[in-house]
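On clarity, I found the account of how folds are encoded harder to follow than it need be. What matters is that the chain and its backbone geometry are given together, residue for residue. The format is easy to grasp once an entry is in front of the reader. For illustration, here is how one protein appears when written out as sequence plus structure tokens.
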Amino acid sequence: MSETVDGMSYHVPDDLRAVRAFVTERALALGLPEARLDMLTLAVSELTTNTLQHTSGGGHIRVWVEEGRLVCDVVDQGSDRPFGRAMPSAEAIRGRGLAIVERVCDAVYTTAVPGGTLVRICLNL
């Protein structure tokens, strides 16, 4: 059985601190071990920063527990994300964010939704 879904919207870079605090507090309350908290925060920071750098209109984040894992959706007005790619070289100026998300989460899914894209990250509890 899943827990109640809780979420928040973000629109400007100054919102990112509140997003990280929201995700941290919610994840701890839902039972994510503290040892995994940094990985979740890193992944959420990368996804929400991408939203603000590459889309307009901000985004919305939701967090809940389902089937023994913490689930976090990041929804924005962006296009489909190119997951499944190699880590860019050390000399690359950009392009590491999504590769990092894939490596620190237990599962990553993406799908088109009306008006944008949903990226779902999962961390086992």
In short: The longest helix spans residues 34-54. Residues 63 and 72 are 4 Å apart (CA to CA).
